[in-house]
Specification:
Layout: H1 2-8, H2 11-18, E1 32-37, E2 40-44, E3 50-55, E4 58-62, H3 70-78, E5 85-89, H4 95-98, H5 101-106, E6 110-114, H6 115-121, E7 125-126, E8 132-133, E9 144-146, E10 149-154, E11 157-163, E12 173-177, E13 182-184, H7 204-215, E14 223-225, H8 234-256, H9 261-266, H10 274-277, H11 284-304
Helix pairs in contact: 1-11, 7-8, 8-11
The protein binds zinc ion.
Zinc ion binds next to loops.
């Protein structure tokens, strides 16, 4: 079973990468609205957590879960804002974070994302199981894109978008509400082990660098919306980063000693972290397998020099 989970990776992400496949009717999920700061909320439903800004300029959401969640997302927003969603920001390309793009795009919302989100969504996508999906519809594509960073001045705050290269994917950004001191980190920070989507440019080293970038910009009062899981903070992100570094260093050592991928997975470099970060959706074999590939490539590069 491990292999099956390994191939599927984070069920919430990998299943959603292709996301066009028709499936059984969605479970009846309610949206829970969590108040984070004046005018800023986290919407928890099915798929990635949504960040919501409401105020004088209207409503903006960060990520939009699945297509079938859109009516519920709109209803949750309508309880807080008389205006419809004006901007949708995608933290990365995965279908459990961009599934609502089609509907929001069609109704006139401006979709904003890193360049690679548009590149990937407008071409056939390969999911973590190696299957290729169709390009997304025109309306689902981001219309404002950027390489490294951009800022949206909205509802009396500055929403700063910063690219985190080759982390969970090659499309990730962190969104920072500069005045409110709130972040949305997409799937570069979740409640469990990372899912590293190598098919879409994700690497463990990039994940760690992403955390270093973010940790340098936060303080003890910063509230962090994770891609999945409860609201987080700096201490939790720092602990998560340290866990990744410990595991990465162990994997690197095993790779250097000539171990195979299976042997590295069997050595359980995640041992003491499994209780805290493990679980059905957070499979150690998937990301350790990916970490093995990364570290082996890094070792080969060093040998060539
Ligand atoms: Zn994801």
């Amino acid at each position: 079973m491990k292999t099956v989970f390994g191939l599927l990776g984070c069920a919430l992400c990998a299943v959603a990468v292709a996301q066009q496949a028709p499936s059984a009717p969605p479970p009846d999920v309610k949206i829970e609205t969590v108040s984070i700061a004046p005018g800023i909320y986290m919407l928890v439903g099915r798929g990635g957590n949504i960040g919501l800004s409401v105020g004088v300029d209207g409503a903006a959401i960060i990520d939009d879960q699945f297509a079938d969640m859109v009516p519920k997302i709109r209803a949750a927003v309508a309880l807080l804002s008389e205006q419809p969603v004006k901007f949708v920001i995608n933290t990365h390309l995965h279908g459990d974070h961009t599934g609502g793009n089609d509907a929001f795009g069609k109704s006139g919302a401006v979709i904003i994302a890193q360049d690679n989100v548009r590149k990937r969504l407008s071409t056939p996508q390969v999911n973590a199981a190696g299957a290729t999906g169709e390009p997304r519809a025109r309306e689902a594509l981001p219309v404002v894109t950027f390489a490294d960073s951009a800022t949206l001045h909205f509802n009396d705050d500055d929403l700063e978008f910063t690219h985190l290269p080759n982390a969970h994917t090659e499309t990730d950004i962190v969104v920072r509400f500069r005045k409110a001191n709130v972040l949305h980190m997409g799937d570069t920070f979740t409640g469990g082990f990372p899912f590293i989507d190598g098919s879409n440019g994700g690497t463990l080293d990039g994940f760690i660098r992403a955390h270093e970038t973010v940790l340098a910009s936060v303080d003890d009062d910063t509230k962090i919306i994770r891609g999945h899981g409860p609201l987080g903070n700096k201490a939790e992100l720092a602990a998560y980063h340290d866990m990744l570094v410990t595991v990465r260093d162990r994997v690197a050592k095993l790779v250097k000693a000539g171990k195979t991928q299976d042997q590295v997975v069997e050595a359980r470099p995640t041992k003491e972290f499994e209780e805290k970060y493990g679980g059905a959706n957070f499979d150690a074999a998937q990301w350790i397998g990916r970490a093995y590939v990364d570290q082996k490539q890094a070792l080969e590069r060093r040998k060539k020099k």
